[in-house]
Amino acid sequence: VSIAGVACVATVVGAPAALGCVEVGVYRDAPSSLRVLDRQVGPGTTVISTYVTINRAVDPAVIALAKQRRAKLMVTVMFDAGRDGPAQPLYSTARIAAGRYDKGVKSIARQLKASGLNVILRPLPEPNADWWPWSGTRNGNTPASYIAAWKRVRKVAKANGGKRMKLLWAPYARSVPETDDNAIDRYFPGNNFVDLVGVSGYNFGTVGELEWLTPLEIFQDPYVEIRALSTKPF
Known about the structure:
The chain is an alpha/beta fold. It has helices at 33-41, 60-69, 93-97, 102-115, 143-161, 215-229, and strands spanning 3-11, 21-28, 47-53, 72-78, 119-123, 165-169, 196-197. The protein has a 7-stranded mixed beta sheet with strand order 2-1-3-4-5-6-7. The longest helix has 19 residues, at 143-161. The radius of gyration is 18 Å and the shape is globular. Residues 1-5 and 7-18 have low confidence and may be disordered.
C-alpha cells in the first residue's frame, strides 16, 4: 500500500486567501509509517493517498486510517492486471470505454461511498506518458478513446460514489513522446467532465543523461497549460 500524508504548511505571499495554502506530501509505504511521520514533523495530515487495481477493493486498513485521521482519501485507480508495464492490451481505453470494467469501478465507488469519507478518485492518470496500458500511444489507444474511457469511468463512479466523491484528471508534466498528437490538451475531457485537475511530475535526478530539475522547472509549464483548459480547482 502506498500512502502520502499531506499537511498545509505554508502560505503563498500575495495569493488570494482561497489559493494561499500550499500542501506538501510525503511518500510512505505502509499505514503504520504515518506514526513515524508524526514524530518527525508533527500531526496535521489532511489527505491519505493510495492506489487500487481495478476489480480489487481498496485496502480497509487505509480507509480506517483516513477515518481515524479525519482525512480525505485520494484513490488512484489503475486499470491493469496489478503489474507494471504498458503491454496489457486487455486494459485498452477502447475496452474501458465499452464498459468492460464498469463492474470494477462500481464496486470501488460503492466501497468508498460506504466509508463516509470525502474521496478524491484519480482514474487513468498520466495518459500522455507511454508506460501505462491506457497510455495514448499504447495498445491501439488514442486521445479520443481515452476521453471516451474517462467519461465512462466518471459516469459509473458518479452514479455509485455519492456526493462526497470528486474525480481528479491528472496528466503527466510532459508528454512522452512529445508530439502534437500526444499533447496534454488532446486528453482533456472537458471542464464539465472533471471536478479537480492536477499533474504528475517526477524528478529523476542525474539518471542517464538527465539533469536535476527544480519543482518550478517541472511544473510551471503544465500548470499554465492545464489552467488554460479548466477552471476547476488544481
